[in-house]
Amino acid sequence: MKQVLALALLAVLLLTACSSKPRVTESPSVEFNIEGIVIWNRLNYAVRDVMIEVPASGRFAGCGNILPRSKCQTSFPVQRYTGNAIQVRWSEHAAPHSTEPFTVEPPEAAAPGSVFWLQIEVFAPGQAGATLVQP
Prior knowledge:
Blueprint: H1 2-18, E1 32-41, E2 47-54, E3 59-66, E4 70-81, E5 87-92, E6 95-98, E7 114-124, E8 127-133
Parallel strand pairs: 1-7
Antiparallel strand pairs: 1-4, 2-3, 2-5, 5-6, 7-8
């Protein structure tokens, strides 16, 4: 019984040593706002079910079907960006894809309170990126 207890304690210690710290999201260097999204499909085939999500707030926006070499865009009431991680999910030929969570920064010359659109580009099979663009 003592050996089982000792092994269980050792396992707990080893598992906690292997765990990673939660990712701390820092606020952006300059406070800014987002009022819309543009999603570009740079591929030669359609992408489907593109969702841009902010898991910390539960907010999301997306487009159902984006034809080859075209875009989808939508605006929404201005939202202050607080530095929360963003994740993009989509499917190509019925295969699901997603980005790792990421944050965005405005251009260095951006004035505090500037308004941007979040531009997502599916630029290669299974790959997407994001930038901020001014409307």
